[in-house]
Amino acid sequence: MPLDITAIRREVPATLTSAYLNAGTNGPLPRGAAAAIAEANQSQLSAGRIGPGIYEKSVAVSDDLRSHFARLLGADDDEIALTHHTTDGMNIAIWGQRYQVGDEIVTTSLEHPGGFMPVYVAAKRYGVTVRVVPVEITDDGVTTAEKVIAAITPRTRLVVVSHVSWKSGVVLPLTPIAEKVHALGGLLAVDAAQSAGAIAVDVRALDVDYYAIPGQKWLCGPDGVGALYVRQERLLETQQTFAGFAALRDGAAYDNGGNYLPGLTAKRFEVGTVYPPTLAGMLASLQWLEALGHTAIYDRVQAITAHCRETMAAIPGVTVYTPPNQAGLTSFNIEGVDPVQAAARLGEMGVLIRSVSNPNLLRVSTSFYNDESDVEKLRRGIEEIISER
Ligand SMILES: Cc1ncc(COP(=O)(O)O)c(C=O)c1O
C-alpha cells in the first residue's frame, strides 16, 4: 500500500517547517521517538536510574533494538552489535583484523572519514599498505566495482567501501566485490551510512562481512545509536578492540589471572553503559518505520528521488552527477556558484541540503517523508540563486 505522505509529515514536524532534504546528514525525528526519549528521561528523573526492574528493562530495549536492526538488514539478532554511530562500527571492523606487515587494505577515493580514518590510523600502526582506488564523481556503480575488484590482490586483508557513496550517491554492487575478496582470502567491511533506511538491504545476498549503520540518518533515530552487522562466521575470528563488561559472556565470566570469556554473539563488540533515552528513541523510530513498511518506504524513496533528479536536471545551469535509480542522494552543481555559498543561501530560504568538498558539490537527500512541494522549493531556490549570480 502506498504511504500516506500527508499523515507521515504530521508525524515528523520538522518536515513542515522547512524543505527537509538532508537525511544524509541527520534525518528528522518522528513524534513517537521524541515521546519515547522524553518518557525515558522523565523516568530517569522521577524514578531514578537504578532500582528494581530498571536494568532489566534496559536490557529488554537493547534486545528489541538488535532484533529490529537485524530484520532491517536480513541478519540474525546474534549478528548485531549496538554501536553509537557508523564510525564506531567501521572502527570495530577495521581494527578487528589480524594484520601482518605487508597486508593491504583496499578502499576508494570517495570514502567518508568514518571509513578512511580508521583505515589510515590502523594502517600506520600495523604497517599495512592502503590502496586508494581513484573513483570519479561520475563513475557509476558497475565501473566503481570493477575498479575496486581490479585492485584486490592476495595481499588484500580487507576491502573498505561505502554501499552508497556520500558524494556521488551511487549504489555500489557489493556482491562481486565480496566474491573476489573472499576468493583471495580477505574480507569486506561496508560503510552503510547512506544505505540503511534508504534502500533494501540483505546482508546475506550482499555477502558482506561487516555492515556498519547509523540510526540518525535515513532511519530517523536520535543521535548516538547505530549498529554493526558482523557475519556469523566472522564473530569469533574478529578481534575485540574495545572491551568491557558488556563484551563478557556474563558478568562473572572472568578471573584475576587474565582469563575471560567474551560473548558468543556480536554483543562481544559492545563495551559499557549507554544512554537509555537514545535507545528508547531509536526503538520507537524503528517500530514506526516497520509499521509503515520498509518496502513502501524504499519505493517512495525511489519515486521522490527520481522526481528530484529529473527536476534538477531540467534546470539550465545545473549539472547532476548522480545516475538515475540509485538511493536517496542526488549530487549536483550550479554553474558559476560556490556550493558552500549555495547551501547557505538555500538554508536561508528554508531549503535544507548540504555541500560536500573534494570534489566540491551540492547534495540533496530525498526520503519517504519528502513530497513534491519540497522539490519545488529546492527548484525555486536554485533558480533564485542563478538569477542572483
Ligand atoms: C558515508 C558516510 N560514512 C560515515 C558517516 C559518519 O556517520 P556517523 O556519524 O554515523 O559515524 C557519514 C555521515 O555523514 C557518511 O555519509
What fraction, in percent, of the residue positions are helical?
Answer: 40-55%
Q: How many β strands by DSSP? A: 13
CATH architecture of the largest domain, by name, is 3-Layer(aba) Sandwich
- Topology as a string of helices (H) and strands (E): HHEHHEHEHEHEHEHEEHHEEHEEEH
Largest sheet: 7 strands, mixed
Q: What would you report as the Rg, rounded to the nearest angstrom?
A: 21 Å
Strand percentage lies at 5-15%
> What's the number of helices?
13
Q: Would you tell me the overall average pLDDT?
A: 97
Shape: globular
Assign the structural class, choosing from mainly alpha, mainly beta, alpha/beta, alpha+beta, or little secondary structure.
alpha/beta
- The CATH superfamily of the largest domain is known as Type I PLP-dependent aspartate aminotransferase-like (Major domain)
List each distinct ligand once.
pyridoxal-5'-phosphate
Give the tally of structural domains: 2
Which fold name is given in CATH as the topology of the largest domain? Aspartate Aminotransferase, domain 2
CATH class of the largest domain, anyone? Alpha Beta
Low-confidence parts lasting 5 or more residues at pLDDT below 50? none
Strand order of the largest sheet: 2-8-7-6-5-3-4
First-residue to last-residue Cα separation: 44 Å
Notes on the structure:
- This protein is an alpha/beta fold.
- It folds into 2 domains: 38-290, Aspartate Aminotransferase, domain 2; 293-388, Aspartate Aminotransferase, domain 1 (Alpha-Beta Complex), CATH 3.90.1150.
- Helix content is 41%, strand content 15%.
- It has helices at 5-11, 14-17, 31-46, 54-73, 86-95, 113-126, 141-151, 175-183, 203-206, 276-292, 294-313, 339-348, 372-388, and strands spanning 19-20, 80-83, 104-108, 129-133, 156-162, 187-191, 210-214, 226-230, 318-320, 329-334, 351-352, 354-356, 361-365.
- The strands form 3 sheets. It has a 7-stranded mixed sheet, with helices on both faces. A 4-stranded antiparallel sheet has the order 9-10-13-12. A two-stranded parallel sheet has the order 1-11.
- Helix 7 (141-151) packs parallel to helix 8 and helix 11 packs parallel to helix 13.
- The protein is globular and about 75 Å long.
- The structure holds pyridoxal-5'-phosphate.
- The site of pyridoxal-5'-phosphate has 14 residues, from helix 5 and helix 6.
- The site of pyridoxal-5'-phosphate (PLP) has 14 residues, from helix 5 and helix 6.
